[in-house]
Amino acid sequence: MSLILDIDHVGKTFLQGGLLSRRSVEAVKDISLQIEAGKPEILSVVGESGSGKSTLAAMVLGQQLPTSGRVLFDGVDVASIRSSAARRAFMAKVQPVLQNPFEAFNPLKRVDRYLFATAANFMMAKGKPSRQEIEERVDRALVEVGLTLAEVRGRFPHELSGGQLQRTAIARALIPDPRLLVADEPVSMVDASLRMSIVNLFGALRDRLGLSIIYITHDLATAYYISDRIIIMKKGEVVERGNARAVLDNPQHPYSIALKNAVLTPDFA
Amino acid sequence: MQTEALLHAPEAATQPTLVVERLKAYYTTKAFGIDRDIRAVDDISLTVAKGEIYGIAGESSSGKTSLIKTIVGAIRPPLHVVDGTVRFNFGGQSYNIYDLKPDKLQAIRWRHLSYIMQGSMNVLNPVRRIRHSFYDFAFAHMGLDSATFWDKVRDHLRRLDLDPGVLDSYPHQLSGGMRQRTTIALATVCTPEFIVADEPTTALDVIVQRDVLAMLRDIQRDLGSSFLFVTHDMSVHATVSDRVGIVYAGRLVEEADTPTLFRGARHPYTQHLVASLPKIGDTTRRASLPGRPPSLAEPPSGCRFHPRCPLAMDICSKEVPPMTNLTPRHRVACFAVSGATP
Predict the structure, then answer these.
(1) What's the CATH code of the domain at B229?
(2) Whose CB has fewer CB within 10 Å in chain A, the N or C terminal residue?
(3) In a domain? residue B242
(4) What is the pTM assigned to this prediction?
């Protein structure tokens, strides 16, 4: 069994305060988690604010280094990445999707320039790409998310809807052909009528491209709808994990039960 | 339930707390000699009965916030009222917001009409203790001497299960949920008859959200106040609102009692909003609407929903569908539903 992601007893402690009032906060405590190669899945990470979801994501992306334990991607310790070539090779395989697409793109710059820059960056490894190769690569990624380069070319962020912009952000993440997407609250800033299109897109990417997705959310209903596995976090610890449907249909831990009971159900039947 | 009892009380039926009639408010900008209107509130009529929670749902930039700002009279240029009236009935007296002198309006604010804002961190002054916010907001409106005022504030906090000790805290010392509950206490301390809540739970996580919503319902039951409750989250409306109005691109498209709306929505947009809600225990596929929310600067002609509507007909792109009553408490603006000809 080969693993693409192996989170091995990882912990992260932040230091707070000045010299005299220093205290440490354990954001993530001893978490282990594996994603197998050849078995694409959507893994939901659920919990209240301050439960360490985003810190865990930052460690998977290599933005934060764990204080204890190791994060292995394809057998390589993320903490051991030093050279820029190794970092680029790592980033080609793990890509982020951020919460608010309006903040992810500079409002004064055209959206397509981010796509072209990403493509140029990652194709550089195989020699300098031509303009046409870059555009083909970008168009292919946009088609995966249901857009075309013609629709996006020359547009500023305010000219696209929240849903289109979030799709563009996902297309940007797809350009280097990653094996893992880390999506931190990707639908919480998207309009209600477009939200399900993004969630459905994640399901389609998993099935079509064989991509694994770590889906961080506090919305249990969409987690139930789309994900294969779920972990429920509280104060940096995993309190419950397993098959998403099984866990949410029949939660065991008191915190999971409280979380499920807090979900508002629009039922009038 | 008490809300229902209040709704059926004879005086409540004759004297709604809020009556909005054919309200139009536009953002008018002049650039290079060209006038542009952004029709954020376009021909909206609604009433809110005494003791009722009226929900307003709509997407971002559909004009929800412009609508409530216009209703409470808190607008600044370039937003201005083009047409229509906003009338409140407080204690048997009728007030037309846009005919009042500024000092009269100031006397009504907070005493009769208050506002719960979205970001609690932006409401409370970060460098002063919460005590000062209570003093600044409420003291002048209560007309009490200092000792009685603080007794009343402490009683009010205790009734909302908040420790009066929060008065001596700074906002950053409280958790997000505590802060939001404090701003709700601040908005309700004068026992106002009408409370506007603008996305009060959007920034909170699910468990805290449930507590805050329960608290709002309790307040409404205790004070008998009317609420105008704005959020884009339909499941929140299902939990708190008695009646919901759906706003699309500056216009009201459907309005009904909450159970009617969730069981038998008639407007295609409302039907989509209700059908697309994912639920735990239900794995059927949820579709999403094609297209994108329209820009209010150049809205589509006729019915503003027609470019995305599965039922669109020829007439939809030419005429604006009128609001039609299906039952006395269920109205909808759609040609496909009402069959109305202009």
Answers:
(1) 3.40.50.300
(2) C
(3) yes
(4) 0.82
pLDDT digits (tens, 9 = 90+) for B46-98: 999 988 999 999 887 788 888 988 998 888 888 889 999 999 998 888 889 88
ipTM over 0.90: no
Interface test with A, best of B288, B289, B298, B305 (most A CBs within 10 A): B288
The encoded tokens of residue B241 equal 């609102």
Q: Is residue B129 part of a domain?
A: no
Contact A268 B289 (CB under 8 A): no
How many Å apart are CA B15 and CA A78, to the nearest integer? Answer: 67
Cβ neighbour number for residue A162 with a 10 Å cutoff: 23
Phi, then psi, of A264 in degrees rounded to 5: -80, 130
Quote the minimal CA–CA distance from A149 to chain B in Å.
17
Q: Which amino acid is at B334?
A: C
Range of the domain at B89: 2-112+192-278+289-295
Examine residue A131 and state whether it is found in any structural domain, yes or no: yes
**In this structure, is residue B55 part of a structural domain?**
yes
Identity of residue A126:
K
Query: What is the DSSP secondary structure assignment for residue B126, as one 8-state letter?
Result: T
